[in-house]
Specification:
Blueprint (H helix, E strand, L loop, with lengths): L6 E4 L5 H12 L3 E6 L8 E4 L5 H14 L5 E4 L14 H29 L2 E6 L3 H4 L5 H21 L4 E8 L5 H4 L3 H10 L8 H11 L11 E4 L8
Parallel strand pairs: 1-2, 1-4, 2-3, 4-5, 5-6, 6-7
Helix pairs in contact: 1-8, 2-3, 3-5
Length: about 240
């Protein structure tokens, strides 16, 4: 357990926003663990974890606590999509997305807060999405799961504030990741036309907001929904 900095856990930290968040905390001197379902992530304590499994979550936290110490900052980022219009969407696709994105977040947050409450300090940041409030055709399952994170996070902010544990939500818009890179050029142009800043975010820009919410400077910020969306979600 030797070392400086806080113990940070980023779920889904093997790529995209999660990896950028992990690197941002590491650059600040924190000791960072990431969960991944696809092998080791160079430079980080990597734990195999499927957030739909309570047993996986318990095993992941047990290993992190043994190797690094109790988790002091949790970034719940793990998530999936299974896009389809409602009339074509099977119930399994809806429940799988909600179980991963929303119930999976419940599982990791519940496990982390048990130690935070005892320590009377902690930072929790949930990664939602601009579509949580704007909606998105073909993403009713994803939007529902990400909207659920807002109600979940704000309820926890009220529950845990007296223990000096803050809970905030970051709501990214379209971000330059492997997922958006495969979109057809026409769809990317359509997206950018709706963004006041006229470009996608970088994963590092999202990570900067996450790291600030977990900092001492943001100690009086809780229950906030912070958009990093270039203005796409204004008015929602």
């Amino acid at each position: 357990m030797a070392g400086e900095g806080r113990v940070v856990l980023v779920t889904g930290g093997n790529r995209g926003i999660g990896l950028a968040v992990a690197r941002a905390f590491q650059a600040a001197g924190d000791r960072v663990a990431v969960t991944s379902r696809s092998g080791e992530v160079d430079g980080f304590t990597t734990v195999a974890c499927d957030v739909t499994s309570a047993e996986d979550v318990e095993a992941a936290f047990a290993r992190i606590e043994a190797e690094l110490g109790p988790v002091e900052v949790l970034v719940a980022n793990a998530g999936i999509t299974a896009d389809q219009l409602l009339l074509s969407m099977k119930e399994e696709a809806f429940t799988r997305v909600v179980d991963t994105n929303l119930v999976g977040t419940y599982r990791v947050v519940r496990r982390a807060t048990s130690k935070m409450i005892r320590a009377r300090k902690g930072r929790i940041v949930l990664i939602s999405s601009v579509v949580a409030l704007t909606g998105s055709a073909g993403q009713s399952n994803y939007a529902a799961s990400k909207a659920g994170l807002i109600g979940f996070g704000r309820s926890l902010a009220r529950e845990l504030g007296g223990r000096n544990v803050t809970v905030n939500i970051v709501s990214p818009g379209f971000v330059e990741t492997d997922m958006t890179a495969v979109l057809p050029e026409a769809r990317q142009a359509e997206i950018l036309a709706a963004v006041p800043l006229g470009r996608m975010a970088t994963a590092d820009e999202v990570a900067a907001a996450v790291r600030w919410l977990a900092s001492d400077e943001a100690g009086y910020v809780t229950g906030a929904v912070v958009p990093v969306d270039g203005g796409l979600g204004m008015g929602h």
